[in-house]
Amino acid sequence: MHFALPPRKTSQPPPYLPRSTRLPGLRRSRLKLIALAGLAFLAFIYLVTRPSSSAHHAPSRRAPKGNPPVVVVTVLDYSKYSNAYLQTVKENREQYAKKHGYQTLFAQIGDYDLHGAPFSWTAVVAMRDALSKFPDASYVWYLDASGFIMNPKLKIEQDIMAPARLDTLMKKEFPVVPPDSIIKTFSHTTGQDVDLVLTQEMDGLSAASFIVKNGEWAQFFLETWLDPLYRSYNFQKAETHALEHIVQWHPTLLSRLAIVDQRVLNSYAKGPKQGEYKDGDLVVRFPDCAASGAKTCEIESQAFVQAWRRVFAAY
Which parts of this chain are annotated as the region Disordered (predicted)? Predict the structure, then answer.
């Protein structure tokens, strides 16, 4: 019996492909081209009709309304100063704030969990707390407990932070950390650009009296300053040296920084002539009094306390 053998496979292709196998592939190719053309057309329509980039990327955080215009923040350390002295400090801040419609925030050592960082970091956390409690404030001014506000006529938003005023006060192409830091303030920064105002002391920047403009940049600045790495690092002057580090090595911070003369908001009762207090200055400070005992500040400041009370009563 003979069985039919299966057809043998050949390596030579057939002379042509059947029509039924070519047309479906051709149709698929045309359909892909049509689909791609349609997508390209829809993309074009989107690009033409989409909102402008400024509206599309509008900031998520609304602008502060300026109510209050300023919050004055002070940290009260009862281990360094006498109760009577700190009561006078509170009275001073409250009277000044009342005259201009400002608010005050007084924090104490121990109010915040610093996660093992030195107590001096309380000042930075208190600033962040002020922004949280007064989201519509235009500015937050930190002034430590070693000084008093002496001139009730001066307004922060008008006499320091107004862009036109800052244009005359700020130092451009100026070493950030004295005397000869290679990092300098930008030459092209204008008063309109400024979100942080600092002064210098003999050996560095001062974190005892400074002003921050409320906004997204302020949040970024304070969060950067409070980075756990900086809080845990063994800086000799804790938050002050951390501040010097971040404003020198973060261009985003340096571009919004203005350094002004010490007497603008950080005059010393005793000190170098360029920073020594004169009548009419906004602030007088006694930076070293607490190191000599809690009563020392009370004694050294007595004449200035009498002066500011007299001036405030007359204003």
Answer: 1-22
Give every CB contact of residue 174 below 8 A, 6+ residues apart in sequence: 184, 185, 259
The mean pLDDT value of the chain amounts to: 86
CB atoms within 10 A of CB 120: 17
Which helix (H) or strand (E) is 198 found in, with range?
Answer: strand 196-198
In a domain, 5, yes or no: no
Residue 285 domain flag = yes
Instruction: Give the structural domain span for 135.
Output: 70-314
CATH number, domain containing residue 201: 3.90.550.10
Q: Is residue 22 included in any domain, yes or no? A: no
8 Å CB contact between 145 and 139: no
Tens-place pLDDT, residues 152-182: 999 999 999 999 999 999 999 999 998 888 9
Kindly tell me if the per-residue pLDDT of 138 is higher than 50.
yes
Angle at 221 between CA 215 and CA 227, to 5 degrees: 140
Are 266 and 231 within 8 A, CB to CB?
no
d(CA 292, CA 188): 44
Tell the burial category of 62 from Cβ atoms under 10 Å away from its Cβ (0-12, 13-18, 19+).
exposed
Burial of 71 (0-12, 13-18, 19+ CB in 10 A): buried
Pairs from 271-277 (Cβ < 8 Å, separation ≥ 24): 271/202, 272/202, 275/201, 277/150
Question: How many domains would you assign to the chain?
Answer: 1
Counting Cβ atoms within 10 Å, is residue 50 exposed (0-12), middle (13-18) or buried (19+)?
exposed
Cα separation, 71 vs 69, in Å, equals 7
When mean pLDDT is compared across 6-15, 79-88, 92-101, 148-157, the lowest value belongs to 6-15
With respect to residue 55, please indicate whether it lies within any of the assigned structural domains: no
Per-residue confidence (pLDDT) for residue 293, from 0 to 100: 87
CA 59/CA 275 separation, integer angstroms: 40
**In whole angstroms, how large is the CA radius of gyration of the chain?**
33
